[in-house]
Design a protein that fits this description.
Blueprint lengths: L4 H17 L4 H31 L1 E4 L6 H6 L3 E4 L4 H16 L8 H10 L8 H42 L3 H19 L26
Antiparallel strand pairs: 1-2
Helix pairs in contact: 1-2, 1-6, 2-4, 2-7, 4-6, 4-7, 5-6
Length: 216
């Protein structure tokens, strides 16, 4: 199962968010975009693994114990353990979206920070950088809001698709394995690896020149 809309929309959200709180720093922006690179790489590796599992694990409808190739040669039917790619991809996408859109929390604080810093005689930003931040915030905020609406609608659609997958496709074990691989990729990246900011892409909303997110 493939969805070509997610990389485009999600990369747009990451790009516009990071472009603002990184104050246009291309090096930091590219670093944040690496999160989507890891998400794509995890999807690719898991799909290849699922293909291997499908070819290696299953039951041949035969009186003899045959592997996949022998079953095909003998003309018998091979019933594979078909890990649910639908369950994997839908859960994978929903988890990534839920992490990336956290940047919207407290987004209006950036406008407050700009106004306070512009009247502060000992501002931590130069006049040029503050003007750039204001321009980026004004330009990117409408784009971000539109993309958030689109991602919200897509998330609702994918939740309906996930429910349909649960009800109509694959057996319970196949769906659980697919969902577990999606959760594993999310846990490794967003709950473990990305928190080590010194050598990782970092979490969404962090690692930029502007600190606006409220501490939980």
């Amino acid at each position: 199962m493939r969805n070509k809309s997610l990389p485009c929309i999600d990369s747009g959200v990451v790009l516009f968010f990071s472009n603002t709180y990184c104050c246009g720093n291309r090096k930091l922006i590219n670093r944040h975009l690496l999160r989507l690179g890891f998400g794509t790489a995890w999807w690719f590796l898991c799909i290849k693994l699922f293909d291997f599992i499908q070819d290696s694990f299953g039951i041949c409808v035969s009186d003899y114990d045959l592997d996949h190739n022998q079953c095909a040669i003998s003309g018998n039917r091979w019933i594979p353990f078909d890990v649910s790619g639908h369950a994997f991809l839908l859960v994978h996408c929903l988890l990534i979206i839920s992490e990336e859109v956290k940047c919207i929390n407290g987004w209006e604080r950036i406008d407050e920070i700009i106004r306070k810093e512009s009247t502060n005689p000992i501002s931590r930003f130069s006049e040029e950088k503050l003007a750039q931040l204001k321009t980026l915030y004004d330009e990117n905020t409408p784009r971000i809001r539109c993309l958030i609406v689109v991602l919200t609608l897509l998330s609702l659609l994918w939740e309906v698709m996930l429910l349909s997958t649960i009800v109509y496709f694959h057996n319970l074990a196949q769906k659980l394995v697919g969902a577990c691989f999606a959760a594993l990729g999310w846990f490794i990246s967003y709950r473990f690896w990305y928190k080590w900011q010194s050598w990782t892409p970092g979490l969404a909303g962090q690692g930029g020149d502007l600190k606006y997110l409220k501490e939980n």
